[in-house]
Write a structure and sequence with these properties.
By secondary structure, the chain is of the alpha+beta class. The chain is built from 13 helices and twelve strands. It is about 45% helix and about 10% strand. A hairpin with a 6-residue loop joins strand 1 (about 90-95) and strand 2 (about 100). Helix 4 (about 200-220) runs antiparallel to helix 9.
């Protein structure tokens, strides 16, 4: 019996050795013929015996391998190019001194030459303090072993701006901070978080934002409909928005021009009154005309009275959030919440510039109601860009948001009860009062 077992073991070992030798032989033949396909001058007598069918299979295999290699290299190049462009978008080379200038600057920093006519330029930002909150997610981040602490460390290592992980906090810090946000929706494999800036100032603050978001792009961030980009504008003592008159002017201009702001955001889910974390301020005033809304706001006698108009019951989840101007435990800021998630660096930067210029210029509006009743969305957009007073921003948004299209600028308002659709918040309010439907 032992002899039989020994014989079977010997046969099995022999077969295994034979298979190994045969695989090695076939691998050697395949390697020689792949070399022959790559180098027409290569010749081996053993290759002459291959059947035509075998040669065809080898050729197809080689072509497939080559195509896969090329696709991989192209994807790598595309990724590198996208990251590089994200950090240099808006830059331009001076034709006189060849200096590569900072994004969107109107003149060369070295020789003062004007930017070429085809280059998008923005007017200088006012020296106003601001802050940003960027809600993002990292697809598959949790599955791949990332943590919010490790993301903060990597962002710090990648760039000039220090980033720390703070958990859930509203504490103001000198560094960029990553905080948790339960309002963000994602899969269990993803990581969702909010990146909060320190206090930023004017053009230097925009440059810091650009640096951090470029590094975020390198880590592979993404957004969905639950993400937003919130901009806080300083309303502390000494700022252009520190007095009640300026705050009333900003609030009045925003409420009347809400339809124009809606047209400038790419996500329709944040328009009208569709988002629970970004509700309409205009709908609060019901059927009131534009002139009545303006007069009501300018008659406010205190900050608390103004907040009760724009953010009743201290509801901060409105497109314009003024609740911080009455709180003693938070910095006094005017917050605009209606922009969607970080889709592109260029778009996010344009939005921040728009908000800063709007707040600064609207603070000086002392005339009568800036928008006539029954004005169309396009008229409201013209009034907004006239107030912002920056041709580059108007050009950027007109192209990116297709503001020349009536369909793109139109915002509709849906009744929460019967789902009937209206073209303005006043029409919706009038309908709800007439039939007894509630506006949530």
């Amino acid at each position: 019996m032992e002899d039989v077992d020994d014989l079977e073991a010997a046969i099995a070992a022999s077969l295994a050795t034979h298979r190994t030798e045969e695989m090695n032989r076939q691998s050697a033949i395949l390697a020689r013929n792949l070399s022959a396909l790559e180098d027409p001058g290569y010749y081996d007598e053993d290759a002459d015996g291959l059947a035509a069918a075998h040669q065809e299979v080898l050729t197809d295999s080689y072509k497939t391998h080559t195509a896969h290699t090329l696709n991989r290299r192209m994807n790598e190049c595309a990724t590198e190019y996208a990251v590089e462009r994200s950090s240099t978008v808006g830059c331009w080379d001076c034709g006189q001194c060849t200096l590569t200038n900072e994004p969107y600057t109107a003149r060369c920093a070295a020789c003062g030459t004007d930017a070429p006519s085809h280059v998008l330029v923005y007017s200088d930002l006012p020296p106003i303090r601001f802050g940003v909150e960027v809600e993002v997610l990292m697809p598959g981040g949790r599955r791949d072993g990332f943590t919010l602490e490790s993301i903060a460390r990597q962002l710090t290592a990648l760039g000039d701006e220090a980033v720390t992980f703070e958990g859930y906090t509203h504490r103001t810090t000198d560094d960029w901070k990553i905080v948790t946000d339960r309002s963000l929706r994602c899969t269990p494999d993803d990581l969702a978080f909010e990146l909060v800036s320190p206090v930023l100032l004017g053009s230097a603050g925009i440059a810091a934002f650009r640096n951090v978001m470029t590094n975020m792009t390198r880590l592979g961030i993404d957004t969905n409909n639950s993400c937003g980009l919130h901009v806080h504008v300083d309303a502390e003592d000494g700022s252009p928005l520190s007095n009640l008159r300026a705050l009333k002017a900003v609030a009045g201009c925003f409420v009347l021009l809400e339809a124009a702001f809606d047209a400038l955001v790419s996500s329709s889910s944040r328009r009208a009154d569709r988002n629970e974390y970004c509700r309409s301020n205009r709908i609060v005033f019901g059927r009131a005309s534009n002139r009545q809304v303006w007069e009501q706001i300018v008659r406010a006698r205190s900050r608390h009275e103004l907040v009760n108009m724009t953010n009743p019951r201290n509801d901060r989840y409105r497109k314009l959030n003024l609740t911080n101007i009455t709180r003693t435990d938070r910095p006094s800021t005017v917050e605009l919440r209606l922009h969607g998630g970080f889709a592109s660096l260029a778009g996010a930067e344009a939005w921040i510039r728009l908000v800063l210029r709007f707040c600064r210029n609207a603070a000086d509006v002392t005339s009568s109601c800036p928008l006539v009743d029954q004005a169309s969305a396009k008229v409201a957009i013209d009034v907004l860009f006239g107030l912002v007073d920056c041709d580059g921003l108007e050009q950027a948004f007109t192209v990116d948001r297709r503001l020349f299209s009536d369909e793109e600028v139109m915002t509709t308002w849906d009744c929460p009860t019967c789902r009937k659709r209206f073209r303005s918040s006043q029409s919706l309010s009038q309908h709800c009062v007439a039939v007894g439907h509630r506006i949530r």
